[in-house]
Write a structure and sequence with these properties.
Order of helices and strands: HEHEHEHEHEHEHE
Number of domains: 1
Number of helices: 7
CATH topology: Spore Coat Polysaccharide Biosynthesis Protein SpsA, Chain A
Low-confidence stretches: 204-209
CATH class: Alpha Beta
Number of strands: 7
Shape: globular
CATH superfamily: Spore Coat Polysaccharide Biosynthesis Protein SpsA, Chain A
Strand order of the largest sheet: 3-2-1-4-6-5-7
Mean pLDDT: 91
Radius of gyration: 16 Å
CATH architecture: Alpha-Beta Complex
Helix content: 25-40%
Length: 209
Amino acid sequence: MTETDVRSQTAAVIPAYQDEKHIEDIVRRTRERLDHILVIDDGSSDQTAHRAREAGAEVLIHDQNRGKGEAIKTGLGHWSAREVTWAILLDSDGQHLPEEIDRFIAAAASATEPTFFIGNRMNDTARMPFVRRVVNRYMSSEISRVCGQRIPDTQCGFRMLHRQLIPELLGGAHRFEYETEVLIIASRDGYRIESVPYRNTSRSGTVEP
């Protein structure tokens, strides 16, 4: 499959909460890479949903804050009913540069086996606070052990997955621990977890440890 094929069959899932400051820019830049973009407004009281729509995203709104895990599940469930092969997850606060989507597209195009793609910031940790770096490495080591394969940056929320995995991911935890559970489920189901190095911003958001 070519990168063009993968790109045309990929949709973005962007969970957002109280992020009116960044969401418009993130959506516009993501639209330069992908045609299908869904923002899940997880009960925001600001203009997050309005600004996402203005920028060209499809928007689903939770009537109250349910947590990032539930927002992701809402997005995945939405795309599972559409003619989309891949879903890519990125945060709304600017930590994940939409321009780096290209790296995930290239990785998916070259995959020869069922693969779950996850970003890797650990090759360049100069801007990562020391405590965060230590905690990240410890957690990644423990989760890698449970998954039975090495995952250098298990705490990264920048991810890409195949639609075949989605039904397995619609239950379980509903907040931040959900992202760890996803890796365990994917490994259990025989997916290779491939790390995708990418440029990360120095913004200290509330999404990634």
